[in-house]
Every structure is written in structure tokens, then in C-alpha cells.
Amino acid sequence: MKCFSRYLPYLFRPPSTILSSSCHTEADIISTVEFNHTGELLATGDKGGRVVIFQREQESKNQPHRRGEYNVYSTFQSHEPEFDYLKSLEIEEKINKIRWLPQQNAAYFLLSTNDKTVKLWKVSERGRRPEGYNLKDDDGRIRDPSTITMLRVPVLQPMDLMVEATPRRVFSNAHTYHINSISVNSDYETYMSADDLRINLWNLEITNRSFNIVDIKPANMEELTEVITAAEFHPNQCNTFVYSSSKGTIRLCDMRAAALCDKHSKFFEEPEDPSNRSFFSEIISSISDVKFSHSGRYMMTRDYLTVKVWDLNMESRPLETYQVHDYLRSKLCSLYENDCIFDKFECVWNGSDSVIMTGSYNNFFRMFDRNTKRDVTLEASRENSKPRAILKPRKVCVGGKRRKDEISVDSLDFSKKILHSAWHPSENIIAVAATNNLYIFQDKVN
Amino acid sequence: MEFKVEAHRIMSISLGKIYNSRVQRGGIKLHKNLLVSLVLRSARQVYLSDYYQGVCLNAQTMDTAQPWPPGETMDSELDENDSREHELPHEVGSDVRTSTPERPGSPVPALLNDAVAAPQPVAPPQLPSRRCSNAAAREGEANATRECGALGGVESDSDTPSNPPAASFCRKRRSCEKMTTPPPESPLKKIKQQQQPTATTNTTTTTTTTTAAQELPPPVGDGEEEMDTSNVSSLISIFGSSFSGLLGKESPASEPGAEDSEPDPPSGQICCEQVLKNIAPWSTAIVAF
Hints:
The complex is a heterodimer of chains A (446) and B (289). By secondary structure, chain A is mainly beta. Chain A is globular and about 90 Å long. Mean pLDDT of chain A is 89; it is low at 1-21. In chain A, 2% of the residues lie in helices and 40% in strands. In chain A, the strands form nine sheets. In chain A, strands 1-32-31-30 form a four-stranded antiparallel beta sheet, with no helix packed on it. Chain A has a four-stranded antiparallel beta sheet with strand order 2-3-4-5, with no helix packed on it. Chain A contains two helices and 32 strands. With 289 residues, chain B is an all-alpha fold. The longest helix of chain B is centred in the N-terminal third of the chain and has 32 residues, at 30-61. The N and C termini of chain B lie far apart (38 Å). The chains are: A mainly beta (446), B mainly alpha (289).
């Protein structure tokens, strides 16, 4: 199990508010974190509709210890609050998901979505500008034609690097319900957006049309029993995708089979353990996230108390089940009262699919090594870690005597939750979002 | 029996959540509301099963109870206030003096609480609290929701403390509510400020549901319940009474008639059944979607 050290805490807010991190505004709460395909860029979205992109510094010989720091690269307002006049509903600007497109030229492209609208953003650098116009001078003022005595050809001169983000496509008016997932297809031409009851397939170039590929809305809404909670395309097979439901099931669909993929190709469900039945069994079995492994052979699902790894070839039960915070099982009623039971935790694979990571409460996050079957609980907090210090594993004491470093279940802070995290595609660098703060941890090497 | 307390509490919390979801920014979240309604259904099932167990036990033990007056309707409350004696089933060992949310209109004569069948000492102290509701209703007291909770041991005056008859408590409540049509809004407002006044305007129209609502006086001064059960009245009144989707196989009989706000149900007992079985804040919210 590798040890993670805190390389540098990247706080989402400017330094003036570091001192009072507990008094953040609602808009600063990070709602999604995503590395791009090379790991060079890290994008975060927040509840205020903003996207902040970090870029990894190039390694330099002068400062070897600052290898691969992430600095703010670009900030832009992706979504604004809107109002649906027909239903008299406000549409939140919170960014639900960000997904990067693979890089095909010098610019970077990402999809960001709120509850109703998906936008394709182009993030490009501008490092040069033309200078030497004839009719206007470098400040932009119009030159008096009578003062012009000779022609000159404008040349591109270097300037301060400017990163600009422009919305290239806006995919709107396709979802009646709240969008919970977007996923870019491996064909790099299409992507899908999933809301509670429907999944639509889009072409990245076409904004005025989308195809509905899954529709689980019952004819009579009173017969509704489950909703779609997450969806993802297979990393290699462009015809395959999965979607998870609030009933704890996952359906794998093949788009070659039919235009409308209501009929699944594979159905993954683990039979419920009757001894664990309670009022809240259905809530805690609702899947909050589903992620394919990089290899495409496995997928991982997260429900309230566990993470499960499934083999795509075995539908009857998961391959592995990891308990994230089983000590909460006896506290489900209080968690229901304070709404914590509805928290949607995400889960991530590492680059080699050997370690999985997911978040918990009290700013804890957990990593499970699938090979060694060892797990560790770490904490994302400024108080506990200094720069380049190794994160100390934490332990939650379930009952009986509490040891010195342990924390008891009742002392857990349920307002500090880690719902979103990301793992660098190839290196052991993780980004963990703790409310309004972003922590980037790096594996201690050399 | 503690399941019943828990079930009741969870039901009221769930209804509160569904209500609050309406005023949340971003609109109603389908997923969360679906989960909450599933919990609500589970709690209701437990509650009902506990209740029916108690009823069966009581039916065997009590034979002095008056039979269920046939043909009673929701409208026949005013005259029946004085003559009827009501007993509310309540939880054993619970210090929550709120009456249980709804009583199904079962033909079983004695709707005794489970406590009567079990530990006897528990029963008598509870009776007066129920009586107080009668008293209040008779006086045309608006705060039907308040007195039961606050006046735990208040004695009623003229009600004979005989064994509770079959007459439904909910019918009693209906009468309260009928007599004091505008005031139901005030206790609700008083008790829970978040409730929007407009939400309670439906109380007069959805008598079925309001009845059930009125049956849940909040335990004033009782810190046990976090969510005021007076929520239930406004919630049920807001959302209507039909709830067939998640009930599905359970109560097909009551579904067809269980549309929004039936002012004149065929009989009091069916009305009670509907009230109990048709908590459906969910369906209207979905349909509105």
C-alpha cells in the first residue's frame, strides 16, 4: 500500500478565506472533480456553476521538489441559474458532472452539465497576438490616415499567456428530469446524458437533436418504482453502456440490439440479505455511482455503505464487496433524519485498476487494494497534515475502548463529507474534494 | 410495539421531507422523493401490521365495546361528537401522546390501543388525553392539534370513561376540523412556521386527508419528535390522497376511489381506510412533474 503525502493543499477559495474555511458560501461547494485523459489538467465544478481548471506544472530541473504541482489554469462560469417559467421551477446552476474529451489539437474540450443543460467548452491558450496594424495602433486607437506613410505587415508577437474558455455547444431542452450523468463515448463522436428516467444520446456536433436510448418512465407515474442514478459508456466498446438504478441494480445495454435499449443485455443484481432488512434498506441499496475499470473488464458500484466490484461476465453477484463505513448501519435512522442517508458518494479506480477509492464522512476517504485486500482510511484536512508529510491512517472506533488515535462514531462530523474525488489516470495522484476545499495528494516517491 | 412508535415517527419525518422538497431550490428531486416514499411505505406497513395485531388481540379480549356505527359518514360529525366516545390506539410505553396518524375504518368494534391488550396500567392514563380531544372539539376549539399533545392528563368532562367504542378517532377529528375550518391553518402555522400558508388552504377541500392530518397533534413540549406531526395534515392536504403506485398490490380496493380529495366518501370507515392507505404526497408531486 503506497503512502500518500500531502504535496500541497490546493484550496478552492482565494487565500483571504483560508482562515475561515468553515464559513464558506454554498456556492463554493465543489460538486465534481475530474482529471483529463493525460492527467495534465484537473477540472472542478462547484455549486455556483463555476468551473476551475488546474494544470500540472511541467517538471523543471531547478525545482525538482515541486514536481508536478497543480496551479489554477482557467476559471469560468459555466452555468447560470435559470428559471423554467412553465413549471415555475428554478434550475440550479450547480455543476453535476464534468467530462473531458480526448485532446485532438492544442485546445482542450470538456463537457459540463447542470440539471438540465450540457455545454461543451473549449479551453484554449492564447500566447500571441498580432501587432503592427496599419489602420490602428497597438492600443487599438484608430490612426489618422494622413499620418500613415508606409504599409507594414502585422506580425504575431508573444504576449502573456491568456487562457480563455468559450462555449462551443449548448445541448439543452432534452431532459425533463434532473441530469445526473454524462459520459463520452469511446468513438469520440457521441456522448450520453442521463436523467432520472431517460438517457439520451447526442452527437457532439449536433445540438438540436438527441436520441433517446433508454426510457424507464412508466405510463402511469404513480407506478414509478425506480429511477436511473448513474450511467457510463464502456471505455473500449462504443456500443456498450451501463446504467444503475435506485433499486441497486445495474443494467448493461448494447446499442446494436435495438434503437431503444429498454431491454437490457445484462442485469446485475445482488440478492438482498434478509437479515439486514430495515426501513432504510431500499435507500442504502440505491447505487450512487458506477464506473468501469480502465480495462473494461470490471465495473464498480457505490451504494451508501459499500463499494462493489463486478465482473461484467457475472451477473449474479459482485466479485468483491468492500465495507466503507459499516458502523453507520446502526445509525441509519438518524442519518435519515439529517438527510445524510441521501448523500451520493462517488468511487474511482486507480490507473491500473488495482486500487479503488471512495469517500466517507468526517473528511475521511478510503482506499481498498484489490490485490492485497488491505484498506486504509485517510483524512483530508489541513490541521492534520503538513506539506510533504505522510498522511496518517485514521481509524474509526466502533465500540468498546477507544484507543488514543481513534475517533468514535459519535464524534464523526457528518457535515464534512467527501463525495467527489478523482485519481490521475496513470500516476498516484489523487484529488479529493472536501466541501469547498480541494486536496491534491501525491504518492511519496523518491 | 416499539416498532410502531418508530414507524410513526419515520412516517412523519418522511412526510416532512416530501413537503420540504417542494420548497427546495431546483425543484422536486425525483430520486430523493422516491426513496422517501419507499421509507414511508415501509413504515406504514409496519405500523399497520402492528396495529392490526393489536386490533385482533383486542377483539378477542374486549366484548364490551360498542359496535361500529354503520353508515357513518364524514359529514355526520357534529351530532356525534357528544355521543361518541373515542379511544385512540396508541403505542405502549410511549410517552408520545400524539394520536396515531390514521385509523383504518375497520369493522372491528373496539379500536383499542395495544396497550389495553398488553400492560393494563398503561391504558387508563392515556384515556384522558384522548378525552381532551373530545372536549376540545365539543367546545369548537380550533386547536385540535394542540390539546392532545399538551394536555396529557387533562380530564374530560362529560365523556364517560367507559371502554372505547369502535367509533373511529378519525371521525372525531373530522368533526373538529369541520367545525373549525379556517383555524386548522393557524395551529399548523403556529406549530411549524416553515409551512407556507397557501399550503394549508387545501384543508377544507380535502377533508379525507385533513382528517388524518388532524389526528396528529404535535407533542408540544415533548422533545421526542423532531418533525411536528402537524406537518402531516398540511402535507396530506397539499398532496392529495391518491397513492396507488407504491402501494400497488396492497390495497387495490381502495385505489380506484382514492383520487384527490373525496369530500363525501361512501362511509366513514372506508374513508379512514383511504386516509391510512392513501398517503400519497408522492403521486401528485410526480404528476406535477
